[in-house]
Amino acid sequence: MASTKKVKELQQRREEVFLGGGEKAIQKQVAMGKLTARERILQIVDEGSFNEYDLFVEHEARDFGMEQKILHGDGVITGTGTMGGKPVCIFAQDFTVAGGSLGSMHARKITKIMDHSLKMRMPLIGINDSGGARIQEGVSSLAGYGEIFFRNTLASGVIPQISVILGPCAGGAVYSPALTDFVFVVENISKMFITGPEVIKTVLGEDISMEELGGARVHAEMTGNAHFFAESEAECFDQIKELLNYIPRSNSDAAEKIEVAEPNKKFNISRVVPADKKMPYDVRDVIRSITDASDFLEVQELWAANIVIGFGRIEGKTVGFVANQPKVLAGVLDVDSSDKCARFIRYCDAFDIPIVTLVDLPGYLPGVDQEHAGVIRHGAKVLYAYSEATVPKITVILRKAYGGGYIAMNSRHLRADFVFAWPDAEVAVMGPEGAANIIFRKEIAAAEDPDKMRKQKVAEYIEKFANPYVAAAKGFIDSVIEPKETRKVLIHALGVSVNKSIGSPQKKHGIPPF
Amino acid sequence: MSKSTENSKTGSKKQVKEKEELHDFVVEFRKYKTELTEKYRNRTKWKPDDPSKVLSFIPGTITKIYVKIGDKVEPGTELMVLEAMKMKNTVFAEVSGLVTKVNLNVGEQVPKGKVIFEFELS
């Protein structure tokens, strides 16, 4: 039995370390509108479940007077806990200790907890709040980052990796979050960039604030680096918990099945989509009319909003949704929306989450900027991701599926398991106007009234080809269904697909158009 | 209660602004009604290169100018040194002609895409 004196000493040591960088530094953290690292962890994991490791780790810097300095926990808190009763590994950089700077022992604490999460197959949550590399430790801190990036890559597709940016995350440090599955940012708190405003101003003469350069909104709306945007840390933690309810703990687990609930009657699937194919609607209303309890957790809501991705449940089981969004840019595919959905498809495939694709797109975004930005190689990612995915893949064509867009959006030809279409759907090589202009060019040009002739030919084309039956006749569409049958049909299709098993040719790995 | 507060309560971060209006948007000869994104609105519209102008290809500082108004240039004539990211980049003429304008002086900082020399092509 430990002597009381020794127990007391332990308690004292603990209390000292718990203070991180001390009262003053904590006050500064609070003044910045931020929680402390420890508060953050305790608010994310189940109450009383957090077990900390490496509390008494000390840094190894011996230059520049660093040997005199005590850095509690070396600026990072690591441990295991549970969320909703299920185990997670978690680390939080402590900005109050030397600005959360990453030295070699700090990095070793992180890599140790990463190794745990990988070998014990549980999600990893990393809270980033750090000024960057600890310059006094020189190349050792760079080595630390490298060790972290390597493990991020190793663990990718095995366990869910979640990055929460709750402070600065600059320079090389940003690449760990970028390698993880989901990045969470909070307004006014998160800052991510490779080169900061000061350097940009000195070298390039461009004057920009930190917020405008790499604030939460920038990454949620413009760059696509962030997947979830919150207005407060509390909202952010709720988002993390919600996400973890949808996804499996590892690639050898299934996502938790929950009690089945019918969609909310408010979302009437037969009324969402306007008959006029040129008019927009919010495809998320279609998703919510299909999912259990009309719940839908949207990923990257604010970026490339012309495509919608996210998680919902059908009959209690998690499904990944990919849907063109006619409300924004008419739902076209472009560079960003291709990147957005391709990565999501690969996420679902890695973690055995079936994919339901809702199709309504006019084609690809036309423009020199798109062509020069490489829409060819970006668009190819969608083809690659769908073709490569071996999870159950089900498609519902709601309205339009033209040309390359039709093929890309999980068509039969990319080995969709089931392709359904609503009676209003048009599957065609291109939109009626474009097709008629090409096929009947001579007739139109020779006509007395070319405009009238064009209209007539477009109408003829629509009558003949703008329907789902031409594709259905070739077996490219398995079944034409009424909108109100969609949920029932999806439940059945997902049900019969549970034991889906297909092989791919032996290879080390493919070469996707990254 | 204003629209924006209503929306922020439903959790959607998008409609902080006024409701987006619908625009005409043409894809393959068909005109759709849709909202536009900020990124789409701010995209750079393509312009063909103008061979009579030399633009800064990178933001930096001009540390040397080798030509003045009225000088003849040939492809390969040294025009200036544009220092950027600690590299001294010598910029050469790609066309033949007469220098009609020199818009900046030695020591000045330039952003990317600024017109520095203009020529009368021959």
Considering residues with a beta carbon less than 8 A from a beta carbon on another chain, report the largest interface and each chain's count. A-B, 42 and 32 residues
Distance between the termini of chain B: 67 Å
Strand arrangement within the widest β-sheet of chain B reads: 3-10-8-5
Q: How many beta-strand segments of chain B?
A: 10
Instruction: Give me the CATH superfamily of the largest domain in chain A.
Output: 2-enoyl-CoA Hydratase, Chain A, domain 1
Q: Please count the beta strands of chain A (DSSP E, at least 2 residues each).
A: 17
Q: Do you know the CATH architecture of the largest domain in chain A?
A: Alpha-Beta Complex
CATH topology tier name of the domain at 53-121 in chain B: OB fold (Dihydrolipoamide Acetyltransferase, E2P)
Question: What would a concise description of this structure say?
Answer:
The complex is a heterodimer of chains A (514) and B (122). Chain A has 514 residues and is α/β, with parallel strands linked by helices. Chain A is built from 21 helices and 17 strands.
Report on the architecture of this protein.
The complex is a heterodimer of chains A (514) and B (122). Chain A has 514 residues and is of the alpha/beta class. Chain A has two domains: 13-246, 2-enoyl-CoA Hydratase, Chain A, domain 1 (Alpha-Beta Complex); 269-431 and 466-496, 2-enoyl-CoA Hydratase, Chain A, domain 1, CATH 3.90.226. Chain A contains 21 helices and 17 strands. Chain A has helices at residues 4-18, 23-31, 37-44, 104-119, 139-155, 175-179, 197-204, 210-214, 216-223, 233-246, 269-272, 283-288, 335-350, 368-372, 375-388, 403-408, 432-439, 441-446, 450-465, 469-473, 486-496; strands at residues 51-53, 76-83, 86-93, 124-128, 161-165, 168-170, 182-186, 191-193, 228-230, 297-299, 307-314, 317-324, 355-361, 393-402, 418-421, 426-428, 479-480. In chain A, strands 10, 11, 12, 13, 14, 15, 16 and 17 form an eight-stranded mixed β-sheet that branches. In chain A, helix 4 runs parallel beside helix 5. The longest helix of chain A has 17 residues, at 139-155. Chain A is elongated. The model of chain A has no long low-confidence stretch (mean pLDDT 95). With 122 residues, chain B is mostly beta strands. Chain B has a domain at 53-121: OB fold (Dihydrolipoamide Acetyltransferase, E2P) (Beta Barrel), CATH 2.40.50.100. Chain B is 9% helix and 40% strand. Chain B is built from two helices and ten strands, in the order αββαββββββββ. Chain B has helices at residues 3-9, 38-41; strands at residues 23-27, 30-34, 53-55, 60-65, 72-73, 78-84, 87-92, 97-102, 109-110, 115-121. In chain B, the strands form three sheets. Chain B has a four-stranded antiparallel β-sheet, with no helix packed on it. A four-stranded antiparallel β-sheet of chain B has the order 7-6-4-9, with no helix packed on it. A two-stranded antiparallel ribbon of chain B has the order 1-2.
